[in-house]
Amino acid sequence: MTADRRDLSNLTAPTPRAAGLTLPPRRTTPAAPLRAPDSEPEREPDSEPEVVEAVVAAPVRESTERPKPRKAKPPVPGGRKRPYPVYLPGPLADRLKEAAGVTSYAEWVLTAYRRVHTRLADVFGPPPAADDSGLPPRPRSPRRHVEKPTAIQLRLTEQEIDVLERKRAELGGPSKSEFITAVVELQLDGP
User: Fold this and answer.
1) In the chain, how long is the greatest CA-to-CA distance?
2) Share of the chain above pLDDT 70, in %
3) Strands (E), 45-177
4) CA-CA distance, 183 to 154, in Å (whole number)?
5) Mean per-residue pLDDT for 22-30?
6) For bias kind Basic residues, which ranges apply (predicted)?
7) Which of 3, 36, 122, 136 places its Cα 20 to 30 Å from the Cα of 103?
């Protein structure tokens, strides 16, 4: 080996960042405030100035209470609403838009669910059962639609979402979109 190697042992040593820099000495007495030059020099008064007591009329606070906060709006029955996004086949979304009219999609879908919830088991069939091998059942393959899906967002309360999720689980766990598609199709195509 040659002597071309550099000594790297001091690479992690602290560097003298403030080498040669010092702070000014601390003052022991406060500096005199700067004054603008006056046209007349100051004179000492010949006599003591008169002290006049003045009463200032200031509003007096009766108490130190803070103003009461405004009352919150009454809670929405069933709790706050949150988004429940689903995808519907394009033509079905168009039919839903036409059928819903001025009603919100969420209200229309909930009304449809009330009417068709008993017929959903016919659409999805019995949930897959475990076989004797002990393996869990495989999920159903999702339905494939050739049409381009359209996203819609239902605004539902936690209670409404819980009811729909329980029904989905009871039917074997179809996707949210597949489940809502079946509800809309049964309502639009059914009696």
Assistant:
1) 117
2) 56
3) 81-89, 149-157
4) 13
5) 71
6) 68-83
7) 122
What does the domain layout of the chain look like in residue ranges?
Answer: 89-125+144-189
Q: 77-103: per-residue pLDDT in tens?
A: 567 899 999 999 989 999 999 998 899
The CA distance from 5 to 68, in Å, is 76
Answer yes or no: pTM beyond 0.70: no
Residues in the chain: 191
The alpha carbon torsion through 41, 42, 46, 52 (nearest 10 deg) reads: 130
105-116 and 90-100 helices, crossing angle to 10°: 100
Whether 157 and 79 have beta carbons less than 8 Å apart is answered as yes
Residue type, 28: T
Backbone angles phi, psi at 44, to 5 degrees: -80, 135
**Residue 149 DSSP class:** E
Q: In this structure, are residues 79 and 158 in contact, taking their beta carbons and an 8 Å threshold? A: yes
User: Please, which contacts does 132-135 make with residues 24 or more away whose CB atoms are closer than 8 Å?
Assistant: none
